[in-house]
Design brief:
The complex is a heterodimer of chains A (101) and B (394).
Chain A lengths: L6 E3 L4 E2 H10 L4 H8 L12 H12 L18 E2 H5 L15
Antiparallel strand pairs in A: 1-2
Chain B lengths: L11 E2 L1 E4 L3 H12 L5 E4 L15 E2 L6 H21 L10 E5 L5 H13 L5 E3 L18 E5 L3 E2 L2 H14 L3 E3 L4 E7 L2 E7 L2 E5 L2 E3 L5 H6 L8 E12 L7 E4 L4 E5 L4 E6 L19 H14 L7 E12 L6 E5 L2 E8 L5 H18 L4 H5 L4 H4 L11
The chains are: A mainly alpha (101), B alpha/beta (394).
Chain lengths: 101, 394
């Protein structure tokens, strides 16, 4: 009998087990877990899985959830087509600094 | 398994490498292969968190100076064998690089470059605009005047390369410390003595500065003045699509580059002439800008109109460590035994890192002169002996 698969990230089909395995392999912060497992890199960009992942990591590291560093939020907030973007005027340099690194 | 340590650092080491990106990891691994023991890597954040993990992953041999061509050629040979050699899949894919131009005036330089690359056994060919359609059927060639194509150029997944090398480092006994910052380096009587970190001091005779955009401030700790300036460059990925784009497309007219990763995403960026050269981390700003997304989208649709309905998923920025001739700085510094730097790759560290790491490791362990390291040493800027490459794009 195989363990039932529990999906942590439904966009990228990342299971709970894969996330835990990655932690055991040495990926101990959310930024590198995101890159190694793909969690949070799909169509929702982490909106439906990142808080679950953070809580799970807090449990694995045995630290309060508030101490887990979240991944940087990257624009756009919702995916935009290249046609939508190309229809905009080019803003001046440093005219907006939309989001974190 | 990559046991990344964040505990206290050892009291001594044969070599301390600053930076856990492509240069630090490849150099550490090659030093271990050359027989060195007790190698420590200090990474201030997580491995690959600096420029390596933010880059586009392109690897090309289309350059205009023989040295760059030879280096890139050696690097491609290493990438071709890397997954097998590391026992780790690095997703290297040779879809080629298609370099396009809209300017008639670029054509003589492109033809000269092809001739030079062919003399070095790089199989680049010159293409008329319509010939590009055989490679990229949906390319809009109406504004193009010509192109060059090398089928042996390609891309790899930067983080997979980092993880593969980190595993190989671990197997070879290299200790990798993450979330570990260098606060100072002590030298006296012209020799490196100690590296100070927020996890303790390490007595060592060798320090290798592989800190990328932070290399300038690391070098300043031992009074080595690097001419490097740091530039913000932005990049993005789209949603994943079925494979449809074989080569990396790169325009020497507007600086856009885009390719399709093995995950199916379009990965691409575009240089921005308005980005200033910065001097040191205090000035870094890696926040994303709408300006980049709009400029990229306009340039992408100019060459690839069918991409209009593809969605951009996310964008980010990283720093290039740029030298006055856009070529890396390798080697040591006269009068300061045990100090070495591998920096200043000007946006091409990922493609050259494996080979510069190998050459520098041999140089450090044997002391044998290496013609490429000699020609890329820091003193070239004083001597004014610069051979800039014309194909700096993105």
């Amino acid at each position: 009998m195989s363990k039932p698969k529990v999906f942590l990230c439904r966009c990228e089909d990342v299971t709970l087990q894969e996330f835990q395995d990655a932690y055991v392999e040495g990926f101990t912060e959310l930024e590198s877990l995101k890159r190694y497992t793909g969690v949070g890199t799909g169509f929702c960009q982490g909106k439906s899985c990142l808080s679950e992942a953070a809580e799970l990591l807090a449990t694995l590291r045995d630290i309060p959830p508030a101490e887990v560093r979240l991944t940087n939020i990257r624009p756009p907030a919702e995916p935009l087509t290249f046609a939508q973007l190309a229809a905009l005027d080019v803003p001046d340099p440093a005219g907006d600094s939309g989001s974190d690194s | 398994m990559i046991p990344l340590s964040s505990g206290p650092v050892p009291a001594t080491a044969d070599a301390v490498i600053i930076g856990g990106g492509i240069n630090g990891l490849t150099t550490a691994r090659e030093l271990a292969r050359e027989g060195m023991n007790d190698i420590v890597i200090l990474e201030k954040d997580y491995i690959g968190s600096g420029s390596t993990g933010r880059c586009g992953g392109g690897i090309r041999q289309q350059w205009t100076t023989e040295e760059n061509i030879r280096l890139a050629q050696e690097s491609v040979a290493m990438y071709e064998n890397m997954s097998a050699e590391l026992g780790y899949q690095v997703f290297f894919r040779q879809g080629g690089y298609l370099m396009i131009t809209e300017n008639e005036g670029d054509l003589p330089a492109l033809r000269d470059a092809v001739a030079l690359q062919n003399r070095c056994d790089v199989p680049t060919e010159f293409l008329q605009p319509e010939e590009c359609l055989k490679l990229v059927p949906d390319l809009d060639v109406s504004n193009l005047k010509g192109a060059t194509f090398c089928p042996k150029d390609g891309t790899a997944y930067p983080f997979a390369v980092v993880w593969g090398y980190a595993r190989a480092c671990h197997r070879a006994g290299v200790k990798i410390f993450i979330r570990s910052r260098v606060s100072g380096i002590t030298a006296d009587e012209g020799r490196i003595r100690t590296v100070h970190t927020d996890r303790g001091d390490i007595a060592t005779e060798r320090v290798i500065n592989c800190a990328g955009p932070w290399a300038r401030s690391m070098a300043a700790m031992v009074d080595v003045q690097l001419p490097n300036k740091q530039e913000r460059h932005e990049i993005m990925v789209s949603e994943s699509l079925k494979p449809f784009l074989d080569p990396m497309v790169i325009s020497i007219t507007n600086g856009i580059y885009f390719s399709q990763s093995l995950r199916g995403e379009i990965v691409g960026g575009i240089g921005d002439p308005s980005e200033p050269g910065l001097e040191g981390p205090a000035h870094f700003d890696t926040r994303s800008q709408l300006r980049f997304a709009v400029r990229f989208a306009k340039a992408l649709l100019r060459y690839y109109p069918r991409a209009g309905q593809i969605k951009m998923m996310r964008q980010w920025a990283g720093m290039y460590d740029v030298t006055p001739d856009h070529r890396p700085i390798l080697g040591g510094v006269p009068g300061l035994d045990g100090y070495f730097h591998i920096c200043g790759f000007s946006g091409h560290g990922f493609m050259l890192g494996p080979v510069t790491g190998r050459r520098m490791a041999r140089y450090i362990t044997t002391g044998r002169p290496d013609d490429i390291i000699t020609s890329l040493s820091l003193d070239r800027f004083e001597k004014g002996d610069l051979k800039p490459d014309a194909f700096v794009v993105g």
